[in-house]
Amino acid sequence: MSNQRKALVTHIFTADPSAHVFDDKIYIYPSHDLPHDGEDNDNGDEYLMEDYHVLSMDDIDAECVDNGEALHMKDVPWVSKQMWAPDLVKKNGKYYLVFPARDKDGIFRIGVAESDSPVGPFTPEPNYIEGTYSIDPAVFHDDDDKVYMYYGGLWGGQLENWKTGEFDPDGKEPAADEPAIGPMVAELKDNIKELASEPMHIKILDENGEELRAGDEDRRYFEGPWMHKYNDTYYLSYSTGTTHYIVYATSKDPKGPFTYRGRILEPVIGWTTHHSIIEYHGKWYLFYHDCEVSKGINHRRCVKFVELEYNEDGTIKTIQP
Ligand code: FUB
Questions:
Q1: What spacing in Å lies between the alpha carbon of 189 and ligand 1's midpoint?
Q2: Which of 113, 130, 185, 286 has a Cα-to-Cα distance from 318 of 20 to 30 A?
Q3: Residue 89 CA, ligand 1 centroid: distance in Å
């Protein structure tokens, strides 16, 4: 029985699935939506996550298992609230959960927690990774053993507050005809606990080699980056936020510039859309979330997956949710 397009678990609300394959099993690192009656706003205050649960499936058709709480905010000294979309990377036999949260000053930072097991429990570092800010880390382990962290999100994710390299509480998005901002990329050191390079802004270009403009809301970056490699090409995929698409851009260099190529996923039920992509037994899968189970309540999301297919020229077939 295929689990495709079905909520993988419904006993808790889960969102922002980062999927990985270890020892032939699929592990999903989602954020954990907590139900409440508060209202939505542009700052994302409704996303009140406090902990992480790791989900797993023995194979693509197997039942999805919740392996329980893997990390709670009360055990992370630097966090004040909102443990949002995480990712995980395996390096030197250890598993590193990489996650964003607000620090004690209310600024989003990115932290790391370590475990010997892919399902945790994870032991957090006492402080966030120095030099990090904003949200939605996606950690990509390249074939040459280098590790890159892609990250950043507008609005609640505060990326527009960092345009000068310092936190500016009054930072605004660029004007519609100016180049769009984000995403960011930095290399991580072997210990995954420090940056190995200065964070840099990735350029996403249109078909004429011009940087996408901030007003191009159907294509410009908003949040939720993911990186995968297919036929020696780097595929950077992300959410367009306000227009609710998952789109992608490609490059021969993991730091870009990338060229916009098209849509992967049309809008789902709910405001946010967030995804990851894995290969499993020769097929490719898109993990995503929607609010079908909660009938559209934005902060009560469920993770799902569906098969993703390429055309012969390497473009991705657009998926209708
Ligand atoms: O889950 C909280 C935020 O919503 C994530 O960080 C964004 O990507 C969006 O899915």
A1: 26
A2: 185
A3: 19
Closest residue by Cα to residue 149 from 205, 87, 91: 87
Rg (CA), the chain: 18
Residue 124: the pLDDT is: 98
Pick from 12, 18, 29, 31 the residue to mutate for probing ligand 1's pocket: most ligand atoms within 8 Å of its CB: 31
Q: What is the pTM of this model?
A: 0.98
Atom of ligand 1 at shortest distance to CA of 301?
1
Judge whether 235 and 246 are in contact, CB under 8 Å: no
Among protein residues, the one whose CA lies closest to atom 9 of ligand 1:
272
Task: For the chain of 321 residues, list the mean pLDDT of each consecutive stretch of 10.
Answer: 90 98 98 91 92 98 97 98 98 98 98 98 98 98 98 98 95 97 96 97 98 98 98 98 98 98 98 98 98 96 98 98 92
Sheet holding 204-205, edge to edge: 204-205, 258-265, 246-251, 233-239, 223-230
pLDDT at 277: 99
Q: Which residue minimizes the CA distance to atom 5 of ligand 1?
A: 85
**pLDDT value of residue 1:** 56
Residue for token pair 């009140």: 48
* Closest ligand 1 atom to 135 CA: 6
One of 2.115.10.20, 3.30.43.10, 3.30.450.40, 3.30.390.30 is the CATH number of 13-308, namely 2.115.10.20
Q: Name all residues whose Cβ lies below 6 A of ligand 1.
A: 15-16, 31, 44, 47, 84-85, 135-136, 153, 223-224, 272, 274
Catalytic residue among 33, 160, 216, 223: 223
Catalytic site residue 168? no
Ligand 1 midpoint to CA 193 (Å): 23
Clarify whether 42 is annotated catalytic.
no
Extents of the domains making up the chain: 13-308
221 within 8 A of 214, measured Cβ to Cβ: no
Outline where DSSP puts E strands in 189-274.
200-201, 204-205, 223-230, 233-239, 246-251, 258-265
